Amino acid sequence: MARLFPYKSISLLRVLAYHGIIIKLFVMTVKTDPAIIMRSGKKAVALGLVILVAPCGIMVGLGYFLLYTRDLHPDVVPDDSIIIIIALLLSTSSFLVVSEILEEIGLLNTELGRLAMLSSMINNAAGLFAFTIFTSINWEKPLQSIKPLGLAAAIILFTLFIFLPWMWWVVQRTPKSGPVAGGTMVAVMVVVSTAGIASDIGGTTFIFSPLLLGLAVPDGTPLGATIVEQIDTVVSELPNMGVYSVWLLASIGVTAPIVPLLKTYYDPLGANYSMGQRTIQHLKPNMELRVVACVQDESPVPSIIHLLEASCADGGNPLCVHVLHLVEQVGRASSSFIAHKNKKGFINPTQMDRLLNAFINFEQSKNGQVPVQPFTAIAPHRTMHRDICSLALEENAAFIIVPFMRDAGEHGEADRPNRTIIPNVLSQVSSA
C-alpha cells in the first residue's frame, strides 16, 4: 500500500476528490429551480418528509439497538452522532439521480414523474438542512457551535446580497443566445471552491456552501445551461476515484427492478384514455371546437393564427384555443408544465413571452369570442409528446396542431429532435 499509494499522492487525490464533490454539488443545485419547491403541493411535501423521517428513524433505532444490546469490539463502536449522520445520509435521496432515472424511462414530464421529482427535492432539501445543522453543532460543548453557525449565517448573507445579484447581473448582460464570458465561469468556480473550503475550515460541512450558491444561479439559459455544459464534464471524474464502481452497482441494484414494474403497471396518460374518439368528425352540432396549438419558435405563429382565423365561423361553432409553448429542458433537472391563466382568467404578464403574447393579442382582436389558454411545457424532446397528449386529453381537445420541421437548410440537424414530436404524437393516437 505504501509503495503503490504514497501518503503524499493519497492526500492530493483526496483534495481533488473533495474539490470535485464541491463543484459537482454546485452544478447539481444549478439545475434546480427553487420556485418549484416553493410551489410544491401538500402531497409532495408530505411524501418527501415521510421518505426522510421513516427510514432515518428506523436506522437510528436499529443502530442504537445494536450498540447497546450487542457486545461489540471497542474498535468498532461508533459515536452516537455518527449513527445519526449515517442515517441522515442514507435517508436523503438525490433528486438529480431521480431526475436522470425518470428521464431515462420517459416519465420525467408525467404526473407520477413530477410528484417523484417534487418529493425528492423536498427530501433532499430537508435532509441536507438537517445534516448541516447536526454537523455544525457541538453537542458536548454548545458554545463552540457559535463559530460554525455564525459562518453559516455569513454564507447565507453573502449568497443573498452579493452572489445572487451578481448572477442576475451576468444574466442581464448576456444575450439570450450568446455565450457567457469565460472570465465569469472562472470567477464562479473560484467563488464556489473558496466558499466550500471556508465552510469546511469554519466547522460547517463543506457541502453547505456549494448547495446554497447553486440555488442562487438562475437555471436554464443562458447562465445555468452554460455552467452545466462547461463545468459538469470537467468535474464528473474528480469525485469518482475509488467509489464509482460501487455506486454504479448500487444504482443498478436499486433501479433494475423498478424500471420494468413502472413500464408494466403505470400508463402516463391513464388506463382508460381514448384519443381516437376525440376528432372533429365526432363533434356534435354547435359544440365547442377545442384546439391544442403547439409552438416552439416564432416561425409557425402567423400560419397558426391564420388557420385559427379561418376556423372562426361567425355565429357558428365556438372555438377555444389552448396554446402550448414547447421548451427544451436545458440546464435544469426537472420538467415543468405552467398554466399562465388561472380559472378567473387572470394572466401573470411577467411569465409570458412573445410567442404566447401573439395569441393573447389574437384573443383580444376577437373581443374575447375566441378564448385562448396559454401554457408552457419544459421537457426533453423525446417526451414532449406526453405533455401535448395530456393537455389534449385534459381539455377534451378534438384537434392538435404541431408545426412540421423541414429537414433542410443550415438548421436541419438542429431541427431533427423537433421532428420526432409528430410521429410520437401520432403513435400515441394510434395506440388508443
Automatic annotation (TrEMBL):
Print the keywords alphabetically.
Ion transport, Membrane, Potassium, Potassium transport, Transmembrane, Transmembrane helix, Transport
GO BP, one annotated term: potassium ion transport
* Listed transmembrane segments: 12-32, 44-67, 82-103, 115-137, 149-171, 183-208, 244-262
User: Pfam family of this protein, just one?
Assistant: Na_H_Exchanger
In the UniProt record, which is one GO cellular component term? endomembrane system
Principal place of residence = membrane
* GO MF: antiporter activity
What Gene3D superfamilies would the database entry show? 1.20.1530.20
Location of the protein in the cell: Membrane; Plastid, Chloroplast envelope
Q: Could you tell me which InterPro entries the record lists for this protein?
A: Cation/H_exchanger_TM (IPR006153), CPA2_transporter (IPR050794), Na+/solute_symporter_sf (IPR038770)
Give every Cation/H+ exchanger transmembrane domain span: 11-254
Summarizing the function annotation, the protein's role is: May function as sodium-coupled metabolite transporter across the chloroplast envelope.
Q: What is this protein called?
A: Cation/H+ exchanger transmembrane domain-containing protein
Originating organism: Cocos nucifera (Coconut palm)
